[in-house]
Every structure is written in C-alpha cells, then in structure tokens.
Specification:
This protein has helices at 3-9, 19-41, 50-77, 82-104, 111-134, 141-160, 163-170, 173-189, 192-200, 216-241. By secondary structure, it is mostly helical. Helix 5 packs antiparallel against helix 6, helix 6 runs antiparallel to helix 8 (173-189) and helix 8 packs antiparallel against helix 10. The radius of gyration is 19 Å and the shape is globular. The termini are far apart. The protein binds retinal.
C-alpha cells in the first residue's frame, strides 16, 4: 500500500501548528462532554427544569456531531466547513430561542413569542449563509450581513428590553437574573459572529481591509464554545439554585 493510501486511512490529519484545526478538535470534545453532562444532570434538577436542561443537552449534542464532521473536513481540505457550520446553527440557534421561551413560560410566554424569536433567528442565519457562501468574495455580502444584523438586533431587543425581559421579571428574581445573563450572551457572545463574518469576507467590510489575517473559523469556534456551553450552564445554574 502506498503511503498516500495510508494517509487517507487516517481519520483526520492534524498538523503541528494548525491552530484552526486545534480549535475544531477541542470544540468537538468540549461539546460532547457538555452534552453528556447536561443529559446526566437532567435527573438531578427539579422536574420543572428538566426540559430546559434537555434542550441544553440537545444544543451541545447537535454541535458535537457537527464539530466531528467539521474537524475532519478541515483536516482533510483546509477550508472552512461553511455548510456544516450553518446546518449546525440553523438547528442550535432556534433551540436557544426555545430556552428563552421555556424559562419564561410560567410567567405567560406564548407560542407567538416563540415563533417570533425562531423566525428572527432563521432570517439571521439564512441571510448570513447567502452572504457568506454565495457572496463571500464580493463586497455586496455586506448587504446580506446587514439584513442578518437587523434580525440579530431584533432578538437582542426582545431579550434585553422587550417581551422576554418583561416576562422574566414577572417570573421571579432567579429567572430575571438568568435572563439578564443570557441577554448578555446575546449582546457580547453573539456579536463575536459578525466579527468572524467580516474576517471571512474577502476585502473585509466595505472593501476596507479590516480584520485581515484573522481566521474566521477560530472566531466562530470560540464563539460556539462560549455560547453553547456557557448558555447551557447559566440555565443549569438557574435550575439547581432556583426557588422560584
Ligand atoms: C451556537 C451558535 C450560535 C449562537 C450562532 C450564532 C450566530 C450568529 C449570532 C450570527 C450572526 C451573523 C450576523 C449578525 C451578521 C453576519 C452574518 C452572521 C450569520 C454571522
């Protein structure tokens, strides 16, 4: 067997100094460990929080599977796994919206609120995908990025000042506090993604060569770890501490 064939038998080819590849491997394992944690902890929390912890487990589980594909795709081809990335997001980000709905449900969150949040997240991601996958080499990608950004600001508004915040406040101090922290995840943690988008757009923003040399995938991988695992842990902390 030639050495070339032997190479292709290796599952993933991670080279020394491949920082992007490192973050894909770490991300993959961290998501899997987080999923195991959330699934097992479901039986340690009060019944009313179980669905929320289950959803945290599903978010990290879905990410673990996609990271498994993404790290191999990267190791094999050395290019961004844009499709796997957006397939992951289109499943996990709406589930994060479900988390906001679940923790404010007892204060009267309606399914129409859930639909609004999910619809905004789908608009944010579909327009982001079009901008990145189809127009990534073109400065017109800022138009798609801007539409995506508008949907992002709508979600941010809802959780930080709008309906979600109002409901959280009437749900009691623990839910109000957790929602405040989660809103900061949306404000700071989610803002990491447009930075990756600009870094990944050829020519940067409006042709200005901003963020050139920064790897879009490293930015996205750090963002995912913070947002998916961190987000789930805030809900977990709420579930184990809440007397509401
Ligand atoms: C677990 C994955 C998460 C929380 C992904 C979140 C993704 C975003 C908030 C992406 C936002 C984008 C914009 C606001 C504009 C540019 C295009 C996107 C899709 C990168």
């Amino acid at each position: 067997m030639s050495s070339l064939n032997f190479q292709t038998l290796l599952l993933a080819n991670l080279k020394a100094g491949d920082l992007v590849g490192f973050t894909f491997f770490i991300g993959s394992m961290a998501m899997a460990a987080a999923a195991v944690f959330f699934f097992f902890e479901m039986s340690n929390v009060d019944k009313k929080w179980r669905t929320s912890i289950l959803v945290s487990g599903l978010i990290t589980f879905i990410a673990a599977v996609h990271y498994y594909y993404m790290r191999d795709f990267w190791a094999e081809n050395g290019v961004s796994p844009t499709e796997f990335r957006y397939i992951d997001w289109i499943l996990t980000v709406p589930l994060m919206c479900v988390e906001f709905y679940l923790i404010t449900k007892k204060a009267g969150a309606t399914s129409s609120l859930l639909v609004k949040l999910i619809a905004a997240s789908v608009v944010m991601l579909v327009t982001g995908y079009i901008g990145e996958a189809i127009y990534g080499a073109d400065t017109v990608s800022w138009v798609w990025g801007a539409i995506s950004g508008a949907a992002y600001f709508y979600i941010l508004y809802m959780v930080m000042f709008g309906e979600v915040k109002a409901l959280a406040q009437s749900a009691g101090p623990a839910v109000a506090k957790a929602t405040r922290i989660l809103a900061w995840f949306v404000l700071v943690g989610w803002a990491i993604y447009p930075i990756g988008y600009i870094a990944g757009t050829e020519g940067g923003l409006f042709g200005m060569k901003v963020l050139e040399g920064l790897s879009m995938d490293i930015v996205y991988n750090i963002g995912d770890a913070v947002n998916k695992i961190g987000f789930g842990l805030v809900i977990y902390a709420l579930a184990v501490s809440s007397k509401d």
